[in-house]
Design a protein that fits this description.
Length: 375
């Protein structure tokens, strides 16, 4: 039998022993390390965001089981460390350690140009140009140079839950003006273009124990600057000036307690009680003035002022005994006239205090005609 010839045409190549040898499988490759596990471990070590480290650790464990990746040790360690960190954070908040941390943070940044570094007596500029809104950075400025604000007081709010921005603002608006007279004892030396501002905690800073409210003098026109310090206290005044201003504060405090009703007849008993407080304050003030040893140049003016206060006291005492509104008004008007602020100018000049009565109502103006009874 003969073998037929192969069909014509192109033929596929025949295998050749020159081809590459067959590849045999080697050792199995190791699976990759899970990146989330590494991140969980790092966050667990840092403890800055322990909750994030715990969540990432749990996510990593789930993926490792599903994909067969390596890194279970990292994930477990990160979860454990983050759990410990989270427990420590909770302990800090419940024991008050967070407040200590916050105080340490503020102490650490003092002098570094932040709002937390501001202290009573310092003057500064706010880079944003406004004393309202949220601020962090400030630039300390010598008070003798133009500046945006001057710190005159600071106080701490009560602990507890964050009370809200409106509640904090109301407290600041009440307390800061009260503290103003401790720093600027001579209200006559505070220009009418000066306004009171305040820096308060934010919700975030409150969580770390920040409770401080900072009271600040600023210009009524935010585009303008103050020049020179408004400080008038023991740091800048002599003992005679302080003695005079402390005596004047007694009367001013009594004036501030005037009833809020528009007319005397709306609350005659309340006005009589107020007139009685005025009588006591005038007795105390004149006694303080007479008890102090004054410089020779101020002896006569102070004595005359004390005599005038005694005359005013008699009218206020009669107002306190008034049985009807008309009688009250009669003695009230006479007593008010005897307390005209201009009667104190001679004494103030002798003591080197401001001599221009404010043209705006000051603490203790008692309503009156707006000229103020701050003496």
């Amino acid at each position: 039998m003969s073998i037929p010839p192969p069909p014509a045409g192109p033929h596929p190549p025949y295998p050749s022993y020159a081809q590459a040898p067959q590849q045999y499988p080697g050792w199995p490759q190791r699976p990759p390390v899970n990146g989330i596990a590494i991140a969980a471990f790092v966050l667990g070590l840092l403890c800055f965001v322990p909750a994030a480290g715990l969540v990432l650790g749990l996510v990593a464990l789930a993926r490792i089981r599903k994909k067969g990746e390596r890194g279970k040790g990292f994930a477990v360690a990160g979860s454990v460390l983050s759990s410990v960190g989270l427990a420590l954070w909770l302990l800090m908040f419940t024991t008050g350690a967070a407040a200590d941390f916050w105080q340490g943070f503020k102490d650490g940044v003092r002098g570094e140009g932040t709002a937390f570094a501001l202290q009573v007596g310092q003057c500064f500029d706010e880079p944003g140009g406004s004393l309202e809104g949220v601020t962090y950075d400030v630039d300390e400025v010598p008070c003798e140079k133009p500046h945006q604000g001057e710190v005159f007081a600071a106080f701490d709010l009560d602990d507890g839950r964050f009370p809200g921005y409106d509640a904090i603002a109301r407290t600041a608006e009440e307390r800061c003006p009260e503290l103003q007279s401790d720093y600027a004892m001579d209200s006559w030396a505070v220009p009418e273009h000066v306004a009171v501002y305040h820096f308060t905690p934010t919700k975030d800073s409150w969580a770390f124990g920040d409770r401080e409210v900072t009271c600040v003098f600023g210009h009524t026109d935010e585009g303008s600057r103050l020049t020179g310090s408004l400080r008038r206290d023991a740091h800048t005044l002599d003992p005679h000036q302080i003695a005079y201003l402390e005596a004047a504060r007694v009367l001013n405090t009594a004036m501030e307690s005037e009833p809020m009703t528009e007319y005397v007849e709306d609350d005659l008993p309340g006005h009589r009680a107020w007139a009685d407080r005025m009588t006591d304050a005038l007795t105390e003030q004149s006694g303080m003035l007479r008890a102090h040893t004054w410089p020779a140049a101020a002896e006569r003016p102070v004595a005359d002022l004390a005599d005038g206060l005694d005359k005013a006291r008699k009218e206020w005492a009669k107002a306190a005994e008034a049985t009807d509104a008309d009688t009250f008004y009669t003695h009230y008007d006479q007593g008010y006239e005897l307390l005209d602020p201009t009667t104190t100018v001679t004494t103030r000049k002798a003591l080197g205090l401001a001599t221009e009565p404010p043209s705006y109502p000051v603490a203790g103006d008692g309503g009156g005609d707006g000229s103020g009874l701050d003496v």
